[in-house]
Amino acid sequence: MGIPHYIVAGPSEMLAITGSGISEIKLKKKHFLWPLQKCTRLDISPVNYSFEVQAMSAEKLPFVLPAVFTIGPKLDEDNESLIKYAQLVSNHDKNSNHVKELVKGIIEGETRVLAASMTMEQIFKGTKEFKKEVFEKVQLELNQFGLYIYNANVKQLVDVPGHEYFSYLGQKTQMEAANQAKIDVAEARMKGEIGSKQRDGETKQNAAKIDAETMIISTKRQGEGKKEEVRVRTEVEIFKNQREAEVVEASAELAKKKAGWSQTARLAEVEAEKAVAIREAELQMEVEKKKALAQTAKLKADLLSKANVEYDIKVQEANSELYRRQKEAEAALFENQKKAEAQKAIADAELYSRQQVANSELFAKQKEAEGVAAIGEAQAFYLGSLLKEVKNYSSLRDYLMINNGIFQEIAKTNAQAVNGLQPKISIWSGANGGESNGEGSGLKDVAGVYRMLPPLLQTVQEQTGMQPPAWLGSIPESK
């Protein structure tokens, strides 16, 4: 067991404590270090990283972007960013190649992606916005490492050797400025000469006018006549015509010189444009060559990777198919076993159920038979006791019918049958008043039947309106 000791961090340091009693990482300025604990000093001062990022604009024009970034661990209240820095970056020196390559990779990636979406003119003119976009996107990526950009300085864009875009652009701008300066000088000279001529003409005209007036006044005072006045006016007109001719000649000469200057400037512009177009064509040809080589290499890599991937896929598919078939066979075998066991269990259950149903039905039938037998024995005993008491079968029958309400039901049924009928009772008698004339009992019964038929048929006719059949006879109509 070691001896605990007290550790204090410097002004630009933090202590990262790990070990016994600490779940992940604890950040402290001072700490009492116990045994089984480890302390690492984190230097939180920022460091300058200088890079020359090579990128390409939307017109596929390469350029170099020199930049200097001041980057260090991010300090916040909950130390979340500093914990990320301690976990991911603190085991390397901030000036080591590992950290430089990490920061450089993030900056180059974001700069190239942003530059590819902008034209060269937009990058050149919007340096401030371009710097802001690069700063924001790089900071977003550095947040996951707990790093913060304290300052970012993007220098002027530099041409890539063999791609002198900015040089030609500067030459073009310089040529345009020189031509514009020449044109401005020529225009100023033209205005100066024209103004000088105008001032001279006006001075001479005013002097001639004053002279003429003076001469006229002088001739009037001296008493000269009209002849001298006409002469002076004639000379003034001649002088004016001469001056106007000189002004027209000077204007023509100036127009001629302006045409020559315009032609020279236009030729210079055309030559500059053609030179730029020729250089752009050469650059485009180089770009196409590089692009063709890159596409060839990419195609070879794609074909090779595709072949490898297809081989791996075929092997995996074959293994997967073999595994699937094995599992299907095992599943089918297991399923068949389970089906057989289930069918056996179902058959046993059905057999047991049928046996139970048969047993229950047998038991029910036995109980029903026992109940019927008991009822029969009770009824037999009851009827036997009644018969023993009344000692006459007819009396027993009448007693049972009265006791069960049979007579009441018969009377009620007969009453309902004849309800609403209006019977006519006719009494027929034979020739001898129904007495037998010594004939046998059989003939007596036949004679009774024949005596009963006429009133029966008449009653049926009166109640239903039906006539007896012709073979049976006819009933005389009532008078």
From TrEMBL:
Listed CDD domains: SPFH_flotillin (cd03399)
GO (cellular component) term, any one: plasma membrane
Membrane topology (UniProt): Lipid-anchor
Organism: Nicotiana tabacum (Common tobacco)
Keywords: Cell membrane, Membrane
Name of the protein this chain belongs to: Flotillin-like
Family: Belongs to the band 7/mec-2 family. Flotillin subfamily.
Band domain boundaries: 11-188
Annotated localization: Cell membrane; Membrane, Caveola
Main localization (coarse): membrane
Gene label: LOC107832546
PANTHER family for this protein: FLOTILLIN-LIKE, FLOTILLIN-RELATED
